[in-house]
Each structure stands twice: as structure tokens, then as C-alpha cells.
Amino acid sequence: MDSKSLYFTGLRRVSLREESILPPGPGQVLVQTVMSAISPGTELLIYRGQAPREMAADTSIAALTGSLAFPLKYGYAAVGRVVELGPGVARPWQDKLVFAFQPHQELFLASPTELLPVPPGLGPEEAVFLPNLQTAVTLVLDGKPLIGETVVVFGQGIVGLLLTALLAGFPLARLITLDRCPNRRLASEGLGAHASLDPGQPDVLAVLSAALQGQAPDGKADLAFEISGNPAALDQALAVTGFHGRIVIGSWYGTKTSKLHLGGSFHRQRQILRSSQVSTIAPELTGRWTRDRVLATAWEMVQRCRPARFITHRFPLAQAPRAYELLDRHPEEAIQVVLTY
Q1: pLDDT tier for residue 259 given thresholds of 50, 70 and 90
Q2: Whole-angstrom Cα distance, residue 45 to residue 336?
């Protein structure tokens, strides 16, 4: 049978290709995709030609092989229904709603071990957010927020908003977020941020400092997260973080570079820069935390956060080029864009 798959074919170009899908073999199932979510961070880097083409697509996801060079089939947030079982697969898998780390495509073959059954009470519009909440959970694990701390989050895209939702459940002294888009700042405050600022306003660092004043000994942040995708935000994070403060970098900049001012107070303040990436767990946590435990926590957070409210646009797969054009040209209009099948 034939299936349409989305390919990144060149700079700001995506197209659909017909691919032949064989019947499921032993130990395999055939899944019909219902919905997939576009990652506005990683996928836009690929779309804009800002991803390092020699880099492996993702060594932790079996469905993503090869490099990031064009043409490239990509994506990692698909929800579908099992429509056919191969020999040796247990009958309960038939018609099961599942999540898979798979590219944008109508049909795909997978082993049941590569699928995550969607918990009861959740539909495709909630389940499709699992990778984003897995990332948000990983950021929290890496940041280790403490009671009474002041925390700043740069970037309120979908991962930033979900991180804010998780952090709002901690007894923090202050939670301040920053984003250029008014609709995201409004959503951030609705999730529990004490204030959400525009990082582009000329006096933003002074306003941020005033918001933190009196909440920490030096009026600085104890912990900052940089997940805006904008390298310039990392320098702002350094400027607002205090002595021995932690800056967790969740952004992937691709081929973009970051210019940091490290000749001032950075060394004397003993600031800590730490990368965070969802495909691995920090070594100091692996005694207690496994990938399965992180995923189980992410599912629980999906149920608590109910993130389907952040879907702003739905496009049929055939209109995928319009979806990427929207995210590229008018990011202020969108929070989460999904493809339907």
C-alpha cells in the first residue's frame, strides 16, 4: 500500500512523497497516523537550513536515520491507531491508540516496543504533546529548582510554556518569564508566572531586576532557563543570574552562534552553565531515574497540564507547506501547530 510522507527537500521547502508500505512482518504492527505535532524549534532550524547537515538526525530515535542533510524525513511526535498486526503480535494491540517517535507520515511500521499506548482519558490532541512535556520534565530535573528560589525562563514557545506550568507548582519566591510574543506572555501569566516580559524592550534587564529585587540577597535569579532558541538570550540570562546561579540551556541553536560577555562578572560570580537535552539523563540522576520513569512522569504531566489548549493551528498533511510558512514568517501567531491525517 502507499503512504504519503513529509520531506524537507531544501531551504524553506517541504513536499509530500508517496512511499510503498509493506504489510507488517513478524513482530510488527501497521499504524495509521491520526495527528502529528510540528516542533517549532528543531524543525524550523531544518526548514531554514540552520541545522548542521553532517549531524545525525537523532541517534536515540530508531525511526530517524541518516543525517540532517536534505532531503530529510523528520518529526518525532505522532499519534496513531494500530490498524494491522503482524505474525506474533498480541491481539490487544489491534485498534490501540498509540504514541510514536515517528516522522510526519500517513502510515508506518513499528515494533510494539517502539510504541507507547496512550493512557485512558487522553485523546490525540493531548498525547501529541508527550515529547514537549518530556523535555520540560528533563529541564526541571537538570535545573533542580529549590524552595524559595527566584527563577527566570527565557522563551515561552510550547516547551517554555509547559516548563512554566511545571515550575508554577514549585514554592518559588518569583517565577519570571520572557518572550517577544504577546499571546505567549499572556498564556505564561495564566499558567502562574508572576510576570512575563518582552525581552526586546530597551530596559528589560532593569525591569527584570526590579521584579526580582527583595526576593534574593542580590536581587538576581538563582536559576535561569534559556529555551528561546535565540543565542542573544543566553547573554541576558548570564546578566540576570546571581552568584553561583545556574543557567540551564535547553535551546539548540543549530549553526547559529552565541556571543557571550564572559569578561565581566561571570568568573567572579562562579556562574554555572549547563546544557540540557531530552535524549539522555544527567549521570548523577541515573541511579534513580530511567527513560521509562521520565516518560511516565511526562504522561502524568500531560494529564495534569491538558496542553491541547495550546494548539493554535491545525493543517491537513496536504497543506503542510502552509504550516511551515506560518511558523517561519508569523511565529507570533502560533503556539503549537499540528498536522491532521
Answers
A1: confident
A2: 16
Largest distance between two CA atoms of the chain: 65
Question: Which of 328, 280, 265, 330 lies closest to 43 in space, CA to CA?
Answer: 328
Q: Which long-range contacts (CB under 8 A, 24 or more apart) does 88-96 make?
A: 88/26, 88/27, 89/24, 89/27, 89/28, 89/29, 93/29
Class of domain 132-285: alpha beta
Element containing residue 31 per DSSP (H, E): strand 29-37
pTM: 0.95
The H or E element containing residue 112 is none
Q: Which CATH superfamily is domain 2-128+308-340 in?
A: Medium-chain alcohol dehydrogenases, catalytic domain (3.90.180.10)
- Residues near 9 by Cβ (< 8 Å), separated by ≥ 6? 15, 70, 71
Residue 106: pLDDT band (50, 70, 90) is very high
